[in-house]
Amino acid sequence: RPAPTAQAASAACYVSVVVDIPARALSEPFTYAVSGDLVDGVKVGATVLVSFARRMAAGYVIACAGTPDGLAGAESLDPSSIKPVRAVLAEPAFSEQSVAVARWLSQTYVAPLSECLRLFLPPGHTPRVRRLEDGTYEVERASVQEVHQRVVALTEEGRAFVPPERAVRQRQLVEALACGPVTTSELNALYGGMSATVKALERRGVVTVEERRAWRGCDASTTLSSASGAAPAQLTAGQRRALSAIEHARGLGRGDVVVVDGVTGSGKTEVYLAAIERVLAEGKSACVLVPEISLTAQTVGRFRSRFGDAVAIFHSRLSAGERLDQWDMVHAGVARVVVGARSALFCPFRDLGLIVIDEEHEHTYKQGQSPRYHARELAAYMASLYGCPLVLGSATPSFESLARCAAGSFGGVSWTRVEMPERPAGATLPRIVIADLRREFARGSRSMFSKPLLDGLMRVVERREKAVLLHNRRGFAPFLMCRECGCVPTCDHCSTALTYHERTHTLECHTCGAVHPVRPYPAPGSACPRCGSRYLAKMGMGTQQIEDALRSLLPPDVAVIRMDADSTKAKGSHQRLLEEFDAAECAVLLGTQMIAKGLDFPEVTLVGVVMADYALKMPDFRASERAFALLEQVSGRAGRGERAGEVVIQTYLPDDPVIRAVAAHDRSLFVPADLAQRAELGYPPYVRLVNVVCRGKDRNVTERYVEALAEKIRAIASQEHRVAPAGASGLSAALAADSTERPQVLGPTTCVIERAKDRFRFHVMVKCPVGYDISRVLSRALSEVGARRDVSVSVDVDAYDL
Ligand code: ADP
Ligand code: ZN
Ligand code: ZN
């Protein structure tokens, strides 16, 4: 219950509080006074009870000062008008540095500060304030209980204790404790009721019993680990180069970035482990992000076996209690290495000495809900704040990282790329075969499997091996393609594939929409605009169709396992299907992009990509970058055992630079040209791309709203002068080929998915110079247009899925 209203005049100090009312998005802190009896508990990071807009609410303390003058925005307040803090609801959960991070998130991604601060709270600790009937207030808290356990250990004298021959229980106990302390529950599980014996020996001073906090969530992850913790006898030359670059960056203490650009299996994980070892030796902590824990169990296991109990692990399958305990382990300083998904960055680190992002190109690092942050950008900001290096590892680094490394610096720190082109044991990369579907078509084949893929499958059947077939439909939108020449109609302005709309027989650009004069392409069956062929067909077959074709093609004793969104709906089905594949003698695993990574089955000798063009022709300027990463990843699934692997990529576009680059294992065949095109057309990493999506049940209302919003953004952006780049000097100076000084507003237009969950979706895209303060323009535009109940707006800065 809150304390009675304190007299503001007798305040011991003043605080800035960000009030957290779930239904309202608040960013502005308000000033409150703290009375003498509360002053000990009110610190930065604490959750407090305050009155706000004639109700009681929870809020987070982000600053303290002896007088109002010491708080930003409170200088001119009359102390007697300042309302008091009513009570302390929770101990500090975050530090002043975390407040800086939350502010940065809020500003960069146009998200309420209250929402950004909430990310730092321990799991289950979101306080809600409830008004009771008698007019007083109570704080509800999602209750997650701490668990304690009793730990039995031998005392100094106890080590010399020899139980009498006949005292069997005592002998068992002393034996069990010889190697170290054991919990009472473990003892009971091992030997049955042991409490009487423990008590007896405790009385005699042989053992001690201590109550300790139990850390849930640790045991579950050790079962994932089959990996050994031993470091290799000698690091490769590439590993030594990477490690010394990281050490150099650590020495500078500025938050420099090291991109470890190493082919799959080149030993990147080993580099992280070695670097973290040194960070721990200095008493600091480290944070390692992995794209998806369930797919990287082996990697996680290696951290556990190398660093033991010093590792906290965060993944989506933890229960609330486990999550809380892992968080507390970091808070208490018990765990100094954190391995987890992007949200692991919000752990209560002490003295962060290194941040690692593995597979940094992965799109899972971009958060889909507000605040829509990108873990790479957040980590880069945190690295500079903490003065520790950021290590980005990948076999296919993101174009953002490649461009920044090419420029040498970004955001005031250096970006260095270290290549690791070889695998330690000299293991070979698989042979890549490109199957030209145009030629198959000309030959009269109407099958979805080309000759090379058929031959490969038959060889697998004959030798009783396994094959993986990828049918990628991620971000897929139907498009038209000429089956004779491979031509795909693309937008003149955006150079992305035009999306085919069956209902209206139109092709639309979902980037620029109305701005672009849509070319009146004919419906399927009409002539190809390039070669005049009549075989202009809609592309878009499903995994089910391919499964049927496979089953009728292969002998019945070959297991065909389909893994896609439909077949993995049930909990645990993903794992079950993989086990089925593992157990089968001869099998084909057919799946969407979810099979591209993490799979490590030595019997897989063939990887087939049914239709690489789906990835190449996504209506997205990142299509080539993503296609390359996907094809490289999936190729890495072949030939991991003794037997050599083969990869067959089916395509109508064998001359596409991405296909050529994959075939030659040479990224330079497409990256420079693609980057040059992005610079010319004004795409990231040379501009920042902001996607503003409006959703509403009423089509007209939503459309009118998005039009008004777009107009407003245009108007404000044209008034505003270019804001000085905030710490983005490197890239904008060295790379901004497109010298647009002002944001460019594209659209509005319908989204690629025009209607979802009964809501119509429209979007406006804003391209702005790197370092331009676009969030200010957007915040102003949003507040001037005003919110509508029936239209929801989401702002996605550095958008990925358009
Ligand atoms: P990546 O993370 O780049 O895919 P890993 O670190 O998983 O690569 O290493 C691939 C394999 O090579 C692992 O089995 C690892 O134990 C082994 N390895 C890594 N570094 C060395 C080394 N210096 N000497 C021998 N084996 C190594
Ligand atoms: Zn054609
Ligand atoms: Zn366009």
UniProtKB/TrEMBL annotation:
<feature type="binding site">
    <location>
        <position position="531"/>
    </location>
    <ligand>
        <name>Zn(2+) 1</name>
    </ligand>
</feature>
<feature type="binding site">
    <location>
        <position position="509"/>
    </location>
    <ligand>
        <name>Zn(2+) 2</name>
    </ligand>
</feature>
<keyword id="KW-0862">Zinc</keyword>
<feature type="binding site">
    <location>
        <position position="528"/>
    </location>
    <ligand>
        <name>Zn(2+) 1</name>
    </ligand>
</feature>
<dbReference type="Pfam" id="PF18319">
    <property type="entry name" value="Zn_ribbon_PriA"/>
</dbReference>
<feature type="binding site">
    <location>
        <position position="512"/>
    </location>
    <ligand>
        <name>Zn(2+) 2</name>
    </ligand>
</feature>
<keyword id="KW-0235">DNA replication</keyword>
<feature type="binding site">
    <location>
        <position position="485"/>
    </location>
    <ligand>
        <name>Zn(2+) 1</name>
    </ligand>
</feature>
<comment type="similarity">
    <text>Belongs to the helicase family. PriA subfamily.</text>
</comment>
<dbReference type="InterPro" id="IPR041236">
    <property type="entry name" value="PriA_C"/>
</dbReference>
<dbReference type="Pfam" id="PF00270">
    <property type="entry name" value="DEAD"/>
</dbReference>
<dbReference type="InterPro" id="IPR040498">
    <property type="entry name" value="PriA_CRR"/>
</dbReference>
<dbReference type="InterPro" id="IPR014001">
    <property type="entry name" value="Helicase_ATP-bd"/>
</dbReference>
<dbReference type="InterPro" id="IPR041222">
    <property type="entry name" value="PriA_3primeBD"/>
</dbReference>
<feature type="binding site">
    <location>
        <position position="482"/>
    </location>
    <ligand>
        <name>Zn(2+) 1</name>
    </ligand>
</feature>
<dbReference type="Pfam" id="PF17764">
    <property type="entry name" value="PriA_3primeBD"/>
</dbReference>
<feature type="domain" description="Helicase C-terminal">
    <location>
        <begin position="501"/>
        <end position="681"/>
    </location>
</feature>
<dbReference type="InterPro" id="IPR011545">
    <property type="entry name" value="DEAD/DEAH_box_helicase_dom"/>
</dbReference>
<feature type="binding site">
    <location>
        <position position="491"/>
    </location>
    <ligand>
        <name>Zn(2+) 2</name>
    </ligand>
</feature>
<dbReference type="InterPro" id="IPR005259">
    <property type="entry name" value="PriA"/>
</dbReference>
<keyword id="KW-0639">Primosome</keyword>
<feature type="domain" description="Helicase ATP-binding">
    <location>
        <begin position="249"/>
        <end position="415"/>
    </location>
</feature>
<dbReference type="InterPro" id="IPR001650">
    <property type="entry name" value="Helicase_C-like"/>
</dbReference>
<comment type="subunit">
    <text>Component of the replication restart primosome.</text>
</comment>
<dbReference type="InterPro" id="IPR042115">
    <property type="entry name" value="PriA_3primeBD_sf"/>
</dbReference>
<keyword id="KW-0238">DNA-binding</keyword>
<keyword id="KW-0413">Isomerase</keyword>
<dbReference type="InterPro" id="IPR027417">
    <property type="entry name" value="P-loop_NTPase"/>
</dbReference>
<protein>
    <recommendedName>
        <fullName>Replication restart protein PriA</fullName>
        <ecNumber>5.6.2.4</ecNumber>
    </recommendedName>
</protein>
<keyword id="KW-0067">ATP-binding</keyword>
<keyword id="KW-0378">Hydrolase</keyword>
<keyword id="KW-0547">Nucleotide-binding</keyword>
<dbReference type="Pfam" id="PF18074">
    <property type="entry name" value="PriA_C"/>
</dbReference>
<keyword id="KW-0347">Helicase</keyword>
<dbReference type="Pfam" id="PF00271">
    <property type="entry name" value="Helicase_C"/>
</dbReference>
<keyword id="KW-0479">Metal-binding</keyword>
<comment type="function">
    <text>Initiates the restart of stalled replication forks, which reloads the replicative helicase on sites other than the origin of replication. Recognizes and binds to abandoned replication forks and remodels them to uncover a helicase loading site. Promotes assembly of the primosome at these replication forks.</text>
</comment>
<feature type="binding site">
    <location>
        <position position="494"/>
    </location>
    <ligand>
        <name>Zn(2+) 2</name>
    </ligand>
</feature>
